[in-house]
Amino acid sequence: MKALKIAAIALLVYVGIVVAFESSIGILQPSTGATLVITTFDADGASHERVVARLASDGHLYVAANHWPRAWYRRALAHPDVQATVDGQKRDYRAVPIAGVEHNRVSSENSLPFVFRIVTGFPPRYFLRLDPR
């Protein structure tokens, strides 16, 4: 019984760490040379901006949903005409979800450190290819 309590406490502490990390990323939206700002649109046409990871593979531009909060990703799937600000330049793109061989290639070329996967709670990782419009 004592081992079960310790495991439950450890699990709660871990969930707290993940929630705190994911919340801080969502609030602070840190940007580096490896990020871009994606502008997605909801059903009413309202725009929403989010800093996301900027990835490249085979001459194409990709973004990755690497965290549990991913409203921007769902909006891009529902309304794939998006904008992205890359190096200060805002352009129009079509967000294309990828799967199969392309997904595996982009994932292997842009792997995440194991520590990052731990502190984010091992969310599934999805990619969108941004095709210029």
Structure description:
This protein is an alpha+beta fold. The chain has a single domain (2-132), classed as Electron Transport, Fmn-binding Protein, Chain A (Pnp Oxidase, Chain A). 38% of the residues lie in helices and 35% in strands. The protein is built from four helices and six strands. The protein has helices spanning 2-28, 71-78, 100-109, 114-119, and strands at residues 35-41, 47-57, 60-65, 81-86, 89-97, 126-132. The chain has a six-stranded antiparallel barrel. The radius of gyration is 17 Å and the shape is globular. It starts with a helix and ends with a strand. The model has no long low-confidence stretch (mean pLDDT 89).
Write a concise keyword list for the protein shown above.
globular; Pnp Oxidase, Chain A; alpha+beta; 6 strands; six-stranded antiparallel barrel; 133 residues
- The CATH topology comes to Pnp Oxidase, Chain A
CATH architecture: Roll
- What is the domain total for the residues? 1
| Strands side by side in the biggest sheet | 1-2-3-6-5-4
Shape: globular
The percent range for helix content is: 25-40%
Q: For the record, give the distance between the C-alpha atoms at the N and C termini, rounded to a whole number.
A: 60 Å
- Radius of gyration, whole Å: 17 Å
Strand segment tally: 6
The stretches of 5 or more residues where confidence is low (pLDDT under 50) are: none
Which H/E pattern describes the elements?
A: HEEEHEEHHE
Class derived from helix and strand content: alpha+beta
